[in-house]
Design a protein that fits this description.
Layout lengths: L10 H46 L29 E7 L4 E5 L2 E6 L7 E7 L6 E7 L6 H11 L5 E7 L8 H9 L13 E7 L4 E7 L11 E7 L15 H10 L34 E5 L3 H13 L8 E6 L3 H9 L3 E5 L5 H19 L5 E6 L2 E3 L3 H14 L3 E5 L16 E4 L7 E4 H11 L9 H5 L2 H4 L3 E5 L4 E3 L9 H7 L21 H14 L1 E2 L19 E8 L6 H10 L9 E2 L2 E6 L2 E9 L15 E2 L12 E2 L1
Parallel strand pairs: 10-11, 10-13, 11-12, 15-18, 20-21, 21-24
Antiparallel strand pairs: 1-2, 1-9, 2-3, 4-5, 4-6, 6-7, 7-8, 13-17, 14-19, 15-17, 16-18, 22-23, 23-24, 25-26
Helix pairs in contact: 2-3, 4-6, 5-6, 7-9
Length: 646
């Protein structure tokens, strides 16, 4: 029986009871802390997600698209927490290039043929994040020049990883080898056919690692190379430059902390301007016409393109939108750097089907952004524009508005090479849609193209589809004699350095800022036929006993109108034309730039009319004793091309 005032139990039991109560209270407190931490984590995650969505998914405003568009700038969160060490691993092999930082893959190329050559990856010296990745196909000619320029432009202190994928030495000329040695390479002079090689160095710093495996024979590749080095991060938050404290400098600062390879943009002493101040276009008839820039993950191309576009008289950043095929940060940041809106969307389809869907999405997007726009200019990220690019469209827009026999105005002439284009005032009507900078009418897209556009599973080139009779419906495009765009891109799904050099590098582009176009009334359907009649009647027949491939086939007599007759039995009979195009060293992969079986161009400073007979209706304007048209069969061997009467 308990004594009065006693609590019962032994001392040890009382201590256990007290401990148990302490555990219960502690458990409740721990539970409370856990719940609070989880709630905070969820709220913080949601905030970060909203920030990510704001950054990566551009919002399309429903109204007032011309309101000032304060560009979003890159965040520096990737630079805020440097790791304790940087373990950098670079792989060079026949079929693979890769760079990993602290066991995390940051860039790789794994296909056999694409991305062949010398790969350069630039890492931030503080965090190890990827700032640039470029590939230079030093198997082919000229690419070594671009490699040297890129290496020289990299900011001192950056970590540079260089490696060969497949083959990268056939045209690795001495200047490129010297640039590699300037980084610290001891083996650059020893690299030869199909060797595998990789190096890691700091620009104007130390060589951290280099390895080289020779090819055992001409038909074999060297063994794969892996270079792994451990580096101490250099703690730095941002590039140190004494730039003026302006919104433009803030965008520049943050951009240059994330990316490399933009040459003078990040120079401390004399950086290239971001505010380009184009002149006002007089009598501007396209002030309300927006520009849709078709882009992918080629940010260096986009940077070059936007610099020329936004410097051109009549340009307006608030009327320009970059449409990016994929969730790519760098091209979006390039657009925002210039104060231009960027719209990113999820790709649909593969290869040409994906490209086709991207164009459709961009066209739909630009007319959605600008619901009152009657027209839109469509232009790709790998084009330079002439100084009168907007003036050209301002002068021609009324033709597209009022002439129902037209369905586009293009800034590009497929046959406009240095030796075949001369007159900046001259325009042509053609049956093939050239693209490469063109004016699109809203009604054409909304009422026709959008409704019948090829689905994502169709591996069709969108521009080839645009040229089909079912889409064209007998309509034509206006093009200039001298192009108002220049194609500079040498990489892409349907592009490589050889193709660029062969078919695009020698295209002529106008350089006159205020070029005026003549006789616009002659570009309407009836007026153009009257013009062609006058040209044919005034023309002089070339000597059809000679081959068009002969250097003397077209005489060196200026300011004449020469006529060449070729065999063309039907609308689609281009056999002789394609061989003539080879002789003239112009576009010869398919037939483009013709009007009713006739091609117009300049050759040796005289106009040249190439007329296909008996198909062309212009036969009726020829002299009575016109020579028989030349027929050149498609060669079955590598024998020299010869011509014979049809």
């Amino acid at each position: 029986m308990l004594a009065p005032g006693a609590t019962g139990g032994t001392a040890s039991q009382r201590r256990w009871s007290t401990f148990r109560q302490f555990l219960q209270v502690g458990g409740v407190a721990l539970l409370f802390v856990t719940v609070f931490a989880n709630v905070w984590f969820l709220m913080d995650t949601a905030a970060q997600l909203r920030e990510h969505q704001t950054r990566h998914h551009s919002h399309i405003p429903e109204e007032d698209p011309k309101a000032p568009n304060e560009p979003q700038v890159p965040q520096l969160s990737r630079l805020s927490q440097p790791p304790d060490a940087l373990s950098v691993s670079v792989v060079s092999s026949h079929s693979r290039f890769s760079v990993s930082v602290n066991d995390k893959l940051v860039v790789q190329a794994v296909n056999v043929d694409p991305d062949r050559g010398m790969h350069v990856a630039v890492l931030h010296q503080s965090t190890g994040h990827l700032m640039a990745h470029q590939v230079f196909d030093t198997y082919v000619d000229k690419s070594y020049d671009a490699l040297v320029l890129f290496l020289n432009a990299i900011t001192p202190g950056r970590i540079i990883c260089v490696a060969i994928k497949d083959e990268g030495t056939f045209n690795l000329k001495p200047p490129a080898r010297a640039a590699l040695k300037a980084l610290g390479s001891k083996l650059a002079d020893n690299l030869s056919w199909r060797d595998m090689w990789a190096m890691v160095a700091t620009k104007q710093g130390s060589m951290h690692g280099e390895e080289h495996h020779r090819s055992p024979s001409l038909d074999q590749w060297g063994d794969p190379v892996t270079v792994t080095v451990s580096l101490k991060p250099i703690v730095m938050r941002s590039t140190v430059c004494d730039w003026a404290q302006t919104p433009e400098s803030k965008r520049r600062q943050q951009f240059c902390d994330l990316y490399e390879g933009y040459f003078s943009l990040c120079h401390c002493t004399d950086p290239s301007p971001l505010l380009l101040h184009p002149t006002t276009l007089k009598d501007n008839r396209i002030v309300d016409v927006p520009v849709a820039v078709i882009a992918s993950n080629r940010p260096k191309y986009l940077f070059r393109m936007l610099r020329t576009l936004l410097s051109t008289s009549g340009s307006d950043p608030t009327m320009t939108t970059v449409f990016i095929d994929g969730e790519f940060e760098e091209p979006a940041d390039v657009a925002r750097l210039f104060g231009v809106r960027a719209v990113l969307h999820t790709p649909a389809g593969e290869k040409n089907g994906r490209i086709s869907q991207h164009y459709k999405a961009a066209m739909a997007g630009i007319f959605s952004l600008y619901p009152s726009a009657e027209f839109a200019i469509i232009i790709e990220e790998d084009l330079d524009v002439a100084p009168d690019f907007f003036s050209y469209f301002s002068q021609t827009v009324n033709l597209l508005r009022t002439d129902s026999s037209l369905y586009c105005v293009s800034a590009w002439n497929d046959q406009g090479y240095d030796h075949t284009a001369e007159d900046t005032t001259m325009l042509y009507r053609v049956e093939t849609m050239p693209g490469l900078g063109w004016l699109l009418k809203r009604s054409l897209f909304k009422e026709e193209l959008e409704l019948t556009w090829p689905s994502a599973d169709k591996q069709w080139d969108w521009d080839m589809w645009m040229r089909t009779p079912a889409v064209r419906k007998g309509r034509e495009c206006i093009i200039p004699d001298v192009s108002r765009t220049f194609h500079f891109g040498s990489t892409g799904l349907n592009m490589n350095p050889y193709f660029q050099t062969t078919y695009f590098a020698k295209h002529k582009v106008n350089t006159i800022p205020d070029a005026r176009l003549d006789h616009l009334d002659r570009l309407r359907q009836e007026g153009y036929e009257e013009l062609i009649q006058l040209l044919v009647r005034a023309g002089t027949m070339l000597d059809h006993s000679k081959s068009p491939c002969d250097e003397e086939f077209v005489p060196d007599v200026k300011e004449k109108i020469n006529i060449l007759l070729i065999q063309m039995k039907t609308e689609n009979d281009f056999e002789t034309w394609l061989e003539v195009a080879k002789c003239f060293k112009i576009w010869d992969l398919d037939a483009r730039g013709y009007h009713k079986g006739m091609w117009r161009m300049w050759y040796k400073s005289s106009q040249l009319l190439v007329i296909g007979l008996p198909y062309s209706p212009y036969q009726k304007w020829l002299p009575y004793r016109a020579p028989k048209p030349i027929f050149i069969p498609k060669p079955t061997t590598a024998a020299p091309i010869t011509a014979k009467p049809g």
